[in-house]
Design a protein that fits this description.
The protein is α+β, with helices and mostly antiparallel strands and about 150 residues long. The chain has a five-stranded antiparallel β-sheet with strand order 1-2-3-4-5, with helices on one face. The chain has two domains: about 80 residues, no CATH class; about 50 residues. The chain is built from three helices and five strands. The two termini are about 25 Å apart.
Length: about 150
């Protein structure tokens, strides 16, 4: 988390940051948590799968030769989902101000999927604060929070 301080067009000082979310935030219409096996089930299944492939690789007959490109292909298949999970983590973008003498305090938050999209959204928020004085825009994931 790195916080940037931005002076808005209306001379208010805004604090803008992005944080990675390690667990998905609960929403009102999200009922999949009732049937979700959780983190423990995922670890159990992945370790059993890893153990299975390790046994297959170690117990193969000595006269069977597995080409190097099949090992690379297997590594790519195994690494696809963890890399995709890492790249698609949700990020929370927050813009807040304590207000000024005649303007109220504001807090805007939003959820963005992917680190590069979160970085781009942060740039958009900073530019909008400097030019228009508000972090929200038409396609913005940021919404005002009371």
């Amino acid at each position: 988390m790195r916080t940037k301080t931005v002076i808005g067009v209306d001379s208010r000082e805004w604090s803008v940051r992005r944080n990675i979310e390690w667990s998905l935030p609960a929403t009102g219409d999200d009922f999949e948590h009732d049937v979700d096996g959780g983190r423990g089930a995922a670890v159990l299944i992945l370790s059993a799968l890893f153990l299975f492939w390790l046994i297959i690789a170690l117990w193969r007959p000595a006269q069977v030769h597995i080409p190097w490109y099949l090992w690379v292909l297997a590594a790519l298949v195994v690494l696809f989902f963890p890399v995709r999970w890492w790249l698609r983590r949700p990020w929370t973008v927050v813009a807040e101000t304590a207000g000024s003498y005649d303007l109220p305090a504001e807090r805007w938050t939003g959820l963005v999927r992917g680190g590069s999209k979160a970085k781009e959204e942060l740039r958009i928020v900073i530019r909008r604060l400097r030019t228009q004085g508000t972090p929200g825009h038409a396609d913005s994931p940021l919404q005002p929070v009371n």
